[in-house]
Structure formats: C-alpha cells, structure tokens
Amino acid sequence: SKTRATQGFGIAETVTFVLSLKKPLTAAIMREFQRQPVGALREVTAASDLIDRLGLLVTEEFARAREEIIV
After folding, report:
1. Which residues contact 16 (CB under 8 A, 6 or more apart)?
2. What pTM did the predictor assign?
3. Under a CB-based contact definition with an 8 Å cutoff, are residues 18 and 54 in contact?
4. ∠ at Cα 17 (15, 19), nearest 5°?
5. What's the pLDDT score for residue 37?
6. List of residues 6+ apart from 66 with CB closer than 8 A
7. Dist. CA 8–CA 65, nearest whole Å
8. Averaged over 10-28, what is the pLDDT?
9. Contact 65, 2 (CB under 8 A)
C-alpha cells in the first residue's frame, strides 16, 4: 500500500487489485471441490471473507501511508 501510494496510485486502484484476487481464487476452489459442493461453498466463503478483510487492511494502510506523504 505504501509503495502504491508513493507511486501515485489511488486507493480505488489499490483495493481493486486486492479484490481482483477473488475470481481466480474462487475458480481454483471450485475446481478443487467440484464433487463437494458444501466444501466448495465453505471454502469460497472463507476465501472471500479473507480477501474482504485484506481489502479493508489495505485501505487503512494506504490512507495512513498517504497521510505520511502529505505531512
């Protein structure tokens, strides 16, 4: 986040990058659990929650880094 902030990227671009991991990760989980739909749902939900939390963390870190640059 700090690197992207210093490179001039916006917060939306940075968080979009993190959230873009959902599609390929979901596809990989679905392939792995194709015969276990309940397991697939559990794993996709867990992965989605994790990526959402990572997005929030990146948002907070980006804002903090941006404030350091401004000050």
Report:
1. none
2. 0.79
3. yes
4. 70
5. 96
6. 5, 11
7. 12
8. 93
9. yes
